[in-house]
Sequence to fold (533 residues):
Amino acid sequence: MISFSSPLVFVSVLAMFAALAALMQVRLATILGFYQQEEYDSRRFWRAWLRIPLIDIRASLALAATVAVHASLGGKGIWAMWVYTAFLLWLRAREARINAGAKKKLVMTERAKRLYQLGAVFAAVAAAPVLLNLSFIWLWLQLPPLLLMAANAALEPLQRRVNQRYIAEAKAKLADYPGKIIAITGSFGKTTSKHILGHALENLDSVFYSPGSINTVLGHTRHIRERLKPQDAYFIAEMGAYGPGSIQRLCDFIPPSLGIITAVGAAHYERFKSLETVAKAKAELGFAVLRQPEGQVYLHDSLQAHAVFQDMKRQAPERVHFCGPTEAAEVRLTQVATRLEGTNITIERRGVRETYTLALLGEHNADNLVLIVALLRDQGFSAELINIALRSMPQIAHRLERRDLTGYTLLDDAYNSNVIGFTSALKALDALGKEKGGRRILITPGMAELGAQHDAQHAEIGALAGDCVDLLLAVRADRIPTLVEATKAKGAQVMPVASFAEARAWIESQAQPNDVILLENDLPDLLESRRLL
Fold:
C-alpha cells in the first residue's frame, strides 16, 4: 500500500492519479464510441472486443514492463510514480489523436452522457486497488469496456422507461398522421432506394424521410417526434433486419401501406445463417403491408426464388407486384445502360414501354429504380414528371458518388458492402477508367458480416476485380486473402495497406492524371483496427 510518508510522496501520488483520471476520461470516450457503433448491444460489443481486442498491446506491454521493474525493486521509489505519470500522460495524448482520426465520431446523446458518467464513477471505484499496489494500474487500464457494459446494465431499467416514453409519443403522432407510409427493406439497396424515392416525391408531392441509414425503432422514434409533419403526404421508413421478428416489430410501430423489398442476399449472413431465414425476415414487411386494406407490395423479381414470396403473391395476387428483368415480372426491366450522366433504363409496364434516366452511376441502381417507378406510377404520377425528378437526383454521399478531383476521378462507394453493389462499382470503375485512359485503382477492405460465405464471396469479387482494376490497395489484407489472391491471379497489382489513412496518403502522393480511383466499402473503426487503446 502506498504510504504518504512525506509531502513529496503525496504530491507524486496526486500527480499520478490526476494522470490516471485524464487518461480514463479520454479512454472511456473512445470505448463509448465503439459501443455506440454497436448500438449499445453488449453481446455484439463483447464479440468485437474479443475479436480486436480493444487494448493496445505495445502500450500495455511497456506499462507491464514498468510495473515489473518497479516490483523487482520491492515496490519502492517515488521515481516510479513519476514514470507512471509521464507514461499515462503520453497514452492520453496518443489516444486523443486516435479519437481525432476516428471515422465515426462519438455522438454525446443523453444516453451516451449517462453511460459515460456512470462509467466514470465505476472507474473511480475500480482505481482504489491502485492505492494498495501500483501494479494494478495495468489491469485498471483494461477495464473501460467492462465498466461501460456494467453501466449499461445498471441503467437498462431507466433507459427502457425513457425509450418507452419516447416510443409512445412517436406512436401517438403516427396514429394521427394522415399521409401514406412507405416501408423499404432488403439485404442491400434499401438506403439508396429511400433516397431516390424521397427525392422524387420531394419534386412530385411532399415527403418526410430520415437521413442516412436510420432503420431501427429508436432511430425512427427521434425523427418522428422531432420532424414528421401532418402535411407530409408520404413518410418513407427504411427498415433493417437484425434477426427474425425485427422488421415485424418495426411494422407494428410504423404500420406501412406501401412496401418495397429490394433484395435477399448474403449481407449480414452471419446473423441469419441461411438465405431462407433472411428471406423470411424481409418478408415480414410484405405481410405487414398486406394487412392494410389498400396495401401494395413491390418486390424485385429475384425474390421469386424464395417460397415465402411466392406464398405472398398467391395470397394477394393483385396487390403483390414483382418487378425486374425476367419475363415473369409484372413491371419488366428491358434495357439498362450506364453512361457518364447516369443510368438509363427502359421498362415495360402494362404493355407500354417507358424510358427513365437516373442521375446516378451504377447498373445496380436499375434494380432499385424499377421498383420505385412501379410504385410511383401506381400512385398516379406521370412518367414525364417522374423522369424530370429522377434527372435532377443529386449524388448520394458515399454511394458510388463521383468526384472529379485535381488530376483524377474518385468514385466514393464507402457505404456499400454487398456483392451486387461491389460488382456494379467495379464495372463503373472499368468503364470510366478506360474512357479516361488512366489507371483503374481499387481501395477496399472487402465486405463485412458474410459469415460462412466470407471467403467464397471475396473470391468471386476478386476474380472480377482482376479484370477491372490495374492496382488494388487492400486495406487489412489479412481479412480478405481470397480476394487478394483472386485479383493477383488475373495479373492485377496488389498493395496491402494497414488502414484507409495509409491508402489516402498513397493516393495523395502517387495519383496520376486521368486515374480513376474506387473507394469500395469503409469498415467501421471496430473492424479496421487491429489494436486500439
In short: The longest helix spans residues 144-175.
